[in-house]
Amino acid sequence: MLLYANARWCALHPPPGRSYTRNRRHPAPAALRTGNGGFVTEENPGTTRRRTKSSPPKPLTVTVELPAIALTDSVVLPQMIVPLHLDAWAQVQAVEMALLGDKRIFVAPRSGEGEDAETIGRIGVIATVEESRPSRRGGQRVVVRGLKRARLDSVAQTEPYLRISCLPQPDPEVVAPEAAELMNELLAVTENIVELNPDVPSQEILRYVRGIKEPGLLADHTAYSPECSFEERVKILDTIDPVERLRIAFEISRRHLHVQQLRSKIREDVKSAVDKAQREFVLREQLRAIQRELGEGEGEAAIVDELREKIRAAGMPPEPEEKALRELARLNIIGMHSAEQGVIRTYLELLTELPWSVSSEDHEDISEAARILDEDHYGLEKVKERILEYIAVRTLAGTKMRSPILCFVGPPGVGKTSLGRSIARALGRNFWRTSLGGVRDEAEIRGHRRTYVGALPGRIVQGIRNAKSNNPVFMLDEIDKVGNDFRGDPSSALLEVLDPEQNFAFSDHYLEVPFDLSKVIFILTANMLDTIPPALRDRMEVISLPGYTEDEKVKIAEQFLVPKQREAHGLRPEQATVPEPTLRKMIGGYTREAGVRNLEREIANLCRKIARRVVAKEVETVTIQPADLAEQLGPEKYTFNLAEEVDEIGTATGVAWTETGGELLSIEVSIMEGKGEPMLTGHLGKVMQESARAALTYARSHAHQLGVDPAFFDTHSIHVHVPAGAVPKDGPSAGIALTTALISALSGRPVRKDVAMTGEVTLRGRVLPIGGLKEKMLAAHRAGIKTFILPKRNAKDLIDIPAKVREMEIIEVEHVDEVLAHALLAAAPAEAPSVNGHVDAKKVEPPKPILRSRKGSVAAQPLAS
């Protein structure tokens, strides 16, 4: 690795007055060092080339004053010839002044940024200028030959060029055995380096290096290896002691040898791989030629080659690619006539079709994404805001951002599935949906092992293949309908799919190699959270999509459903018009849902009838009025539960939550003579039965306040009934309605007909919070309820209630006493007529004023009048 060019230059440009002796057998230079630092030469003045006239140089033993230059990226050492390119005018002037004198100049490396006088190194080399001529690229091209180390003594002048005084530094005496041992070690390392480098003539350089007898000079030559850095050369230059310089050079050479060995190994590995590939190519060509001569195997070879090309082009990670190549080699061995070849080919085709390295680019324009979301869906502000936040964070954080796992929970028809498709369009990603409703086999998620007949990958891998990118929006529909049986639990298999800490290496039984799902945005849909296992629910970000209000349904119908169905049935806007009153009547009388799916179905029914009349040329334009609906769609299918028409004793209005939204729940209580056993009817669930018993216990414990003899409960039976007995009912939220109806029957005080209530009750009369408040309040508002009683701890949920619904009088309560104070009227006088619990409100005394404590809470008061 020593500079071959330096050795050649020494031969072609000897010092003035000298020439190298040449060995006729070996034309390469064989320079040897003498004890005084000169070359072994013979006097031959007639052949010496002189470029400029100069005076004889002074001996290098005393302080001398010379022009000086500081080098930024080059280092000149004794007896080394170095070409330099100088741009600075002051440095060119220094060279010119040296040529006008004895051609000697002080050359040292620069130690920092600044003027030459301030940054020139303390240790440099006294050199002679061998050549100086203008450079084609500007500046001056100079060739210098290093003579001897020198230490900077002082700066004589800085303008117009740098001139310094320096003291030559002779090499100190060395211990022969130690120096000889180090020289042998360094020569051995140098020989190894040269032999490993195929780009230089090793024999010529080795002869030159072996001819160097001085320890210091051998160390200096090491610094001219191309592998040697600027800092390493400066370190060798600054070291005066030859033995110490040899040690430094030996360490540097050992590092360079290690680097060269690594390079040589890499070259050998590459050459071996290329040779192997070429050999394999030749053998395959020969095999094809033989098969062509025999007329066999042309189709098989083409299939194998095609699969091999697909594997190389698939961009697989190392592990899947290695697996695919092993299977391909196995296929090549067993041949196409084997019964197993179909299984292997199907497996390889799956591997090559998966989008291992194919990703779609996300849109980063938030305003465009917001426009797309608003274009497809009305309302749903929380979901839209969450998607826009994801786009913003993705724009700032890049690929470090983990993909969200969202779960949309809401009744049917509110737009959960279509919202997933809209999100994919807003993000610019591919979309794939798979339904998990009724899935009971774990293999549906993880796939079947290939040992089984008809084995297939799981739905996740199949969906990724069909989506054709490794970062799609993947919707898992009806996650709450997943079951389990003896074949395993699919929801447990989904834990790995939906866990960001694990899904970067998802393992499918059929695939047998990991696949990265971390870039996929998973969106799950469910109608309720109760049936989803807690561990699975913990991995999702749940976003609730409640039912729409009547006003929201009208807006959705006007902006989306009617235009969509008109276009689907080939009608122009002027040919079919559905005004707002008609839509409201359709919503109230022909649909009963939280979403708009049935509403869209009824609008499509109208459009079909209009299309038939237009084609028959009966009409050109049609405007459907509310009175026309009975003719077009038949009689109204539904009537919503309305508020009670009169104030009744023993009847309270509760509110229930269903998958299709909220419903009013009428609760009736009758008292009769009997053995004191309570009867509960109306297809009540366990929790609701317990709420009824808790209400009865509360009433019995407050018998004195009710003005009821405690023995009354032993001689009378209480019957609690909830109408619509064919419909199962359950949950604790009817607790205060049950209590109100029961106390109304016991005390003879009627319940206000325009009051609805919801809340769980305890034995001590405290009112606890409930769920589904929005749906319940929507149902109450739709039924004409004027006053709505709810637990005080649910007040925080009112922020999600539409403003129009909040127009009802909303009363927040903490105790049953507060509920009774607002829901019960005063007891009817004895002469007031009462038929089946109905009370004439005109003849009922007004309720007594509510007593409040200092803190504003309702004070307990006697319930009997």
What's the number of extended β-strand segments? 28
Strand content is 15-25%
The name CATH uses for the topology of the domain at 651-843 is Ribosomal Protein S5, domain 2
The major pleated sheet works out as: 5 strands, mixed, barrel
Shape: elongated
> Helix/strand-derived class?
alpha/beta
CATH uppermost class of the domain at 651-843: Alpha Beta
CATH architecture of the domain at 651-843: 2-Layer Sandwich
Task: Report how far the terminal alpha carbons are from each other.
Answer: 114 Å
- What is the strand arrangement across the widest sheet? 3-5-6-7-8
Radius of gyration: 48 Å
* Helix count from the secondary structure assignment: 28
Give the uncertain stretches in residue-range form: 1-5, 7-55, 830-865
Helix content: 25-40%
Kindly state the mean pLDDT as a whole number?
80
How would you describe this structure to a colleague?
The chain is built from 28 helices and 28 strands. Helix 12 runs antiparallel to helix 13 (381-397). A 5-stranded mixed beta barrel has the order 3-5-6-7-8. A 5-stranded parallel beta sheet has the order 10-11-14-9-15, with helices on both faces. Among the domains are: 297-353, no CATH class; 366-544, P-loop containing nucleotide triphosphate hydrolases (Rossmann fold); 550-633, Orthogonal Bundle (Helicase, Ruva Protein, domain 3), CATH 1.10.8; 651-843, Ribosomal Protein S5, domain 2, CATH 3.30.230. A hairpin with a 5-residue loop joins strand 6 and strand 7 (140-157). It is elongated. With 865 residues, it is of the alpha/beta class. The N and C termini lie far apart (114 Å). 40% of the residues lie in helices and 17% in strands.
